[in-house]
């Protein structure tokens, strides 16, 4: 009888924590190195092709839904180049090999047994009702910024899409840091003194213009995905810190086209949305080598002579970069909150890096609302300080509001470093100190 009870107890424990499947070395290799002996193809497509208004129907299947509309309308042409490998850090790959066998989904969709690396390196299965949930966890715990990233300079330019007029330029310093699940920078795998159990900190400070100077934003995301993020805003002109209300993450941030929830493509809790895997496609994504692009004429950083990716197309709202045909996982997310302004997010994840390469959002009526591509360059094809870091670096982004005919272009220099990113930077006390 005792043996039966023990087996029953064990069975219930396994059921409660979700099924755990062994991950083979072959599955991990295919996840991180999909272009080892294979190149994505599409009917009629050859690298180097220029996709424009005259031939867009030929290439419709390899364009995301928003980009197809923009090319069809004559707003932009898409230059293409050969698909290249974007290998991630060996530290992250090895963490996946070491820990992915123990990862499963809890009944509420949160993770069980996650330590570090890619949570679910297996190929998504269309017959698995949890496939979307698993892929979004891969994104949430991806290596998008490594363990720690600083972005400076970082320019946000507000543009009238109809006239091309530049309305305003904001200049920021921006920082991201993981408190745990770290694989590269010490301490690994986590900071010991983290009583609040923060997973990730985001901190930004406005440097210009004068009327917004010293405005700061701090966000804490917690290990417990069911716990709401905490956010604080320091208003430079008021010299005071105030806590962000929950609804403010879906308001326009500092008059831009971005919501706080839009940062990095999706800056929210996994549990705030219902996620569905919508299939695997070969799509043209903005992956490229930074130093081979049409860069802006003037250095953005005199110290290193760094130049931003330049813009072109209607209203100067599109990046002037080459796109590659890449294996892509498409996720659809619908907010659980009926009062949320978005009807649906369609996230196109690059399968090799699990980074969001394009986001298409729809309003509650189902109409196209916004497009948010994030251009990626490999860290080995960027400034010297990033070489060897094994990161698909954020290199530019733009948020196009189709309905308002307006855009915010984001041009920046990403640096994978822990030079200044320590817990003290991501504290409310630092907001007050830095704002004086």
At a glance:
The chain has 436 residues and is an alpha+beta fold. The protein has six helices and 20 strands. It is globular and about 60 Å long.
Protein model, in words:
By secondary structure, this protein is of the alpha+beta class. The chain has a domain at 155-170 and 256-415: outer membrane lipoprotein receptor (LolB), chain A (Clam), CATH 2.50.20. The protein contains 6 helices and 20 strands. The chain has helices spanning 2-17, 25-32, 65-72, 90-99, 131-140, 428-435; strands at 50-51, 78-80, 104-105, 111-112, 148-160, 166-178, 198-208, 216-222, 230-235, 240-243, 273-285, 287-288, 311-312, 318-319, 322-335, 344-350, 356-362, 368-378, 392-401, 406-416. It has a 16-stranded mixed beta sheet that branches. Strands 3-4 form a two-stranded antiparallel ribbon. A two-stranded antiparallel ribbon has the order 13-14. A hairpin with a 4-residue loop joins strand 9 (230-235) and strand 10. It is globular. Mean pLDDT is 92; it is low at 1-17.
